[in-house]
């Protein structure tokens, strides 16, 4: 139900307004701003209809904020509707431009008031939705990816949020596998160019002799084998974004042409004289130390300064281990969509091994290892034997003596260590749960059926743990 306050010295107006809201509104009346504020503080109003005559006579008429501010302090969403005679419509129109949300004229028409209230309510809902969407800057499909418990990564997302809507050149810095390609797409998809092309170029994978042609295109006859005109990546990305990965590998001539694009927004095809305009947003990335390359004369200083307008440094995975669980969840969801096995967790030993691993290949290595283990896994939980032995070293330290036999080959030693580990792990679980299968399986992150199979495989007597528990509690 709408709660409406009418501020006017004309008491004859109130019944007409009340008539408009006889079913879904409660109309109150105040003869001055002070009494209206007092009533509003006791029970906030949704709409305040202000008679312009009353406002003109009030002490604060020259400063409308003095009138509206006390109401908004109690309810920031309160809507103001200016009211004046029809021959003074210019006054209420001016009020709408300055402080009011809408206006009505007198004599009062109940139908007009209902329409105005509906319109202001609709406008408020739209404004709230826009505010919500601004808060929810990230598009829905990216929400899982942009979550982080790491301070450095949260700073990265804040920076992306700031720069994405602009046309500024971005330089992504980070080790191999930190996700520079993913973040370049994140910037593009949250920019004003998101509906235009996104063209990715791995500069290091293109031979030096072909790089200029790939980037800027070539004319027919420009070089041996150029039997036709070919558009370059910059032409293909017109209106959108071009991502130049491994920018530190480009040749001197290509650096000069790229500098021209950044300075003048123009380029020409190889072997051509036509000057073309590049309406392209550039995102570059590198794992090299460009400052050092500039000092060594391997990279142009002026080009570096043009690229380094908005640098974003991506932390290595080993520096953001607190994000591992959420990254694993996202990657497993992708693997389930791809392969359909329905695996949603890691064995606790794998979790432990992940935390102690150095991750030289960063997120790319994590993704590859999970996919390999996923393909090999026959159960519903990714188990330690499907990951490299060096990742599980810490988890297996307690059973390392099983490998003392130097005559064992690596595969045999690994098999024995895994079996020793699983036996010890299951016995410890059953000891903790007094032989109860369901809570033990829950702790292990597997199903009771899987746990029972392991118990049978290793010939473990679960009843022995029940009797131990009974004996320990006997007086």
From TrEMBL:
One of its GO terms (biological process) is regulation of DNA-templated transcription. Keywords: ATP-binding, DNA-binding, Nucleotide-binding, Phosphoprotein, Transcription, Transcription regulation. This is Sigma-54 dependent transcriptional regulator. Residues 3-121 form the Response regulatory domain. The modification 4-aspartylphosphate is found at residue 51. GO terms for molecular function: ATP binding; sequence-specific DNA binding. It comes from the Bacteria. Residues 146-375 form the Sigma-54 factor interaction domain. Gene3D superfamilies: 1.10.8.60, 3.40.50.2300, Homeodomain-like, P-loop containing nucleotide triphosphate hydrolases. The keyword Phosphoprotein applies.
């Amino acid at each position: 139900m709408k709660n409406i306050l009418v501020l006017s010295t004309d008491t004859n107006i109130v019944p007409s307004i009340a008539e408009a809201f006889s079913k879904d509104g409660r109309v109150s009346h105040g003869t001055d701003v002070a009494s209206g504020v007092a009533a509003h503080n006791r029970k906030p109003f949704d709409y305040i209809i202000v008679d312009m005559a009353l406002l003109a006579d009030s002490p604060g008429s020259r400063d409308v904020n003095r009138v509206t501010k006390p109401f908004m302090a109690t309810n920031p969403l309160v809507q103001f509707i200016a009211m004046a005679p029809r021959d003074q419509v210019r006054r209420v129109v001016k009020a709408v431009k300055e402080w009011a949300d809408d206006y009505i004229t007198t004599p009062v028409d109940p139908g007009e008031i209902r329409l105005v209230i509906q319109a202001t309510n609709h406008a408020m809902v739209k404004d709230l939705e826009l505010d919500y969407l601004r808060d929810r800057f990230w598009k829905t499909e990216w929400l899982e990816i942009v979550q982080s418990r790491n301070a450095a990564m949260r700073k990265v997302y804040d920076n992306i949020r700031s720069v994405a809507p602009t046309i500024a050149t971005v330089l992504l810095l980070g080790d191999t596998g930190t996700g520079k390609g993913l973040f370049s797409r994140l910037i593009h998809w949250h920019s004003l160019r998101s509906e235009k092309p996104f063209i990715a170029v791995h500069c290091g994978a293109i031979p030096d002799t072909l790089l200029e042609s790939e980037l800027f295109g070539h004319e027919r006859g420009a070089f041996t084998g150029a039997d036709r005109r070919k558009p370059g990546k910059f032409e293909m990305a017109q209106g959108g974004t071009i991502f130049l990965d491994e920018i530190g590998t480009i040749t001197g001539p290509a650096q000069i042409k790229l500098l021209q694009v950044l300075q003048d927004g123009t380029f020409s095809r190889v072997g051509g004289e036509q000057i073309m305009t590049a309406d392209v947003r550039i995102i570059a990335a590198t794992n090299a130390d460009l400052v050092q390359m500039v000092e060594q004369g391997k990279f142009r200083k002026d080009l570096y300064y043009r690229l380094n307008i908005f640098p974003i440094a991506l932390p290595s995975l080993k520096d953001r281990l607190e994000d591992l669980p959420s990254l694993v969840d996202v990657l497993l969801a992708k693997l389930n969509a791809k392969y359909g096995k329905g695996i949603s967790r890691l064995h606790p030993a794998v979790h432990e091994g992940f935390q102690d691993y150095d991750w030289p290949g960063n997120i790319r290595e994590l993704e590859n290892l999970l996919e390999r283990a996923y393909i090999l896994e026959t159960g519903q939980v990714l188990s330690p034997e499907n990951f490299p032995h060096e990742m599980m070293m810490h988890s297996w330290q307690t059973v390392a003596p099983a490998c003392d036999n130097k005559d064992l080959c690596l595969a045999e030693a690994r098999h024995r260590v895994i079996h020793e580990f699983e036996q010890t792990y299951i016995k410890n679980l059953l000891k903790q749960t007094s032989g109860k299968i369901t809570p033990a399986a829950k702790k292990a992150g597997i199903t009771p059926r899987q746990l029972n199979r392991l118990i049978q495989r290793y010939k473990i007597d679960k009843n022995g743990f029940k009797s131990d528990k009974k004996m320990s509690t006997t007086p």
